[in-house]
Amino acid sequence: MPRFLHTADWQMGRTFSRFEAEDGAALVEARFKAIETLAGLARERQCDAVLVAGDVFDAQGVSDRTIRRVFNATQGFDGPWVLLPGNHDAALVESVWTRAQRLKSVPDNVLLALTPGVITLDEQGLAVLCAPLTQRHTYSDLTAAFDRYETPGHLVRVGLAHGGVEGLLSEDIDATNPIAADRAKASRLDYLALGDWHGTRQIDERTWYSGTPEPERFRNNDAGNALVVEIDHPGSQPHVEAVATSQFQWHQWREALSVNSDLERLIERLQALPTTSVLDLRLSGEITLDGDERLNHALSVAEARIRSIQCERSSLQLSPTQEDIATLQADGYLGNVITRLRDLQEGGQGEAARDALAILATVLKDPRGESAS
After folding, report:
1. Of the candidates 318, 238, 306, the residue with the CA atom closest to the CA atom of residue 4
2. pLDDT tens for residues 288-334?
3. What is the pTM of this model?
4. Which of 143, 199, 256, 304 is the residue whose CA sits 20 to 30 A from 186?
5. Taking the CA atoms of the chain, what radius of gyration do you get in angstroms?
6. What percent of the chain has pLDDT over 90?
7. Contact between residue 127 and residue 120 where contact means Cβ atoms under 8 Å apart
């Protein structure tokens, strides 16, 4: 009964420049931790092998240190690892893989599938049919060669490939590197382990995308898993279990505020987020000055508690109420300025007007606001 771990799209060497330096560094480290988690999972579940369906590295030019750290992180599982080149780390004549070999950083139990063919793991009961990408983009189905590959009848026949299943994922990933939707059946595969789609997704009973073990983008596609696959014997249907592996959870919220209860619900959601959250928040609608102050406080508290918050609110208009204006004691000229800035938010200088209104409100609420103004 072969049991193996299916994973893909590690994207090692990826940087997170859009985040604060501290947060970006933590997200990079989480990807190395994910490999260690995979090794621990393979050991705990007594897997016979780990199959990695492409894009181990994010680019050919990653540092030597990154290459060494990737292979060091596999040491927690001493069974065979089969690593397949994907579109980000294609097996070019000179590639990240040839550099790894020159660095002598590849452990003996890590097998690099740099050429098409079959890797036979007789002791583990597996024949792994490999379709590595030898260039970044191809326009023919490299897995078609699986039809011709003969494997011993007593071994479970597993395909390992990286690309997009034709007709199913065309809206979500590139049309290059196509894979026939019926490849598992046509090539008599017991299981087809795929990479390129970064979330866990079942195509049919024998074909799965594992997704990346550690999310790296804001997309609701069930990322952050690995698949534990058991196959009783050649020809039997695989049993597939998705196991969570991620350290951080990425959330993308789009919130339209119009009444006070909208703000209350948003604040409650912020308070309920786990500390391991990475949040992309975009706000629209309108909010009072009092509400904006409460929102700023809630965001400040959340920023200190969770991994990262990025908040875009240029489409959120400040709409001071009469109570706001009375609290600011902004009658006469200042009252007219506030009204003018509120109206200007709907024009071409809306973001600048919103910022000016927020600054003015802050100055007027400060005990030293009179001297500052």
Report:
1. 238
2. 888 988 999 999 999 999 999 999 998 898 877 767 666 666 667 77
3. 0.87
4. 199
5. 26
6. 77
7. yes
Instruction: Label the pairing between strands 308-318 and 3-7.
Output: unpaired
**220: alpha, beta or left? (left if phi > 0; alpha if psi -120 to 50):** beta
Q: What gap in Å lies between CA 82 and CA 174, rounded to an integer?
A: 25
43 neighbors 228 (Cβ within 8 angstroms): no
CA distances from 163 to 140, 177, 227 (A): 11, 5, 18
As a 3-state breakdown, the chain gives helix, strand, coil percent values, each rounded to 5, of 35, 25, 40
What are 239's two structure tokens?
């049993």
DSSP notation for 299-329: HHHHHHHSSEEEEEEEEEEE---HHHHHHHT
Q: Report whether 149 contacts 140 (CB < 8 A).
A: no
Residue with the two structure tokens 């994907």: 86
The strand pair at 117-121 and 126-131 is best described as antiparallel
Q: How many Cα atoms are found within 13 Å in the side-chain-facing hemisphere of 168?
A: 17
Nearest-angstrom CA–CA distance, 209 and 193: 6
Q: Does residue 22 surpass a pLDDT of 80? A: yes
| The two structure tokens encoding residue 289 | 């000055």
- Tokens 């990479």 sit on residue: 195
DSSP string over 78-109: -S-EEE---STT---SSSHHHHHHHTT-S-TT
Q: What is the pLDDT of residues 81-128, one digit of tens each?
A: 999 999 999 999 999 999 999 999 999 999 999 999 999 999 999 999
